[in-house]
Amino acid sequence: MQDIIEKAKRIRLVVFDVDGVLTDGGLILGESGDEYKIFHVRDGQGLVMLRESGCFIAVITARSSRIVSERMTSLGIEYVYQGQNDKGRAFLELMEKLKLSKEQTAFIGDDFMDLPAMIRAGLAIAVADAHPIVKEHAHWTTNAAGGNGAAREVCELIMQSQGTLQMQIQHFLKH
């Protein structure tokens, strides 16, 4: 675990997959073609706290959905890459845009399409219910499943490693 903490200390960019990481992977489709997703509110709070602690937050997802845009906007997430069939390329483009090294990046995934980005990240993380091959390529695996607290677990690991978690908690104790 000490190795993971050392990697987490250097992270400046945290990139999440959406389906299966920020959600449980289920898709609810209405009769008129509307798509619905369930996001865990505590995961969202974790993303906000991590962003406020100084990390860049991004999502890279193969699907395109208006609801993802709306949810990320509501959380203040600036970097939203949808319709990305080559997540590795999108990840590298974002690293280049932000002028970050591999060691300064983390990617959280759950399925095969996430592997190209995960292998390019300094800290590759799989959610608890990720495919076993994805877990094999991860430096660390969360205890929580995708859409059920995994993102919050990642955020708190990074903030704890960087010494910013207590500052975020204190913000709430002052009110």
List keywords for this structure.
175 residues, 8 helices, Rossmann fold, 8 strands, 6-stranded parallel sheet, globular, alpha/beta, two-stranded antiparallel sheet
- The ordered string of helix (H) and strand (E) elements is HEEEHEHEHEHEHEHH
Low-confidence segments, ≥5 residues, pLDDT <50? none
| Oligomer kind | single chain
Rough shape? globular
- The CATH C-level name is Alpha Beta
Say which CATH homologous superfamily is assigned.
HAD superfamily/HAD-like
**Radius of gyration over all CA atoms, rounded:** 15 Å
Strand percentage lies at 15-25%
SSE topology sketch:
Layout: H1 2-9, E1 13-16, E2 28-29, E3 35-36, H2 41-52, E4 56-60, H3 66-75, E5 79-81, H4 87-98, E6 105-109, H5 115-118, E7 123-126, H6 132-136, E8 140-141, H7 150-162, H8 165-173
Parallel strand pairs: 1-4, 1-6, 4-5, 6-7, 7-8
Antiparallel strand pairs: 2-3
Account of the protein in words:
By secondary structure, the chain is α/β, with parallel strands linked by helices. It has a single domain, classed as Rossmann fold. It contains eight helices and eight strands, in the order αβββαβαβαβαβαβαα. It has helices spanning 2-9, 41-52, 66-75, 87-98, 115-118, 132-136, 150-162, 165-173; strands at 13-16, 28-29, 35-36, 56-60, 79-81, 105-109, 123-126, 140-141. Strands 5-4-1-6-7-8 form a six-stranded parallel β-sheet. The protein has a two-stranded antiparallel sheet with strand order 2-3. Helix 6 (132-136) links the parallel strand 7 and strand 8. Helix 1 (2-9) packs across helix 7 and helix 2 packs parallel to helix 7 (150-162). The longest helix has 13 residues, at 150-162. The chain is globular, with a radius of gyration of 15 Å. The N and C termini lie far apart (34 Å).
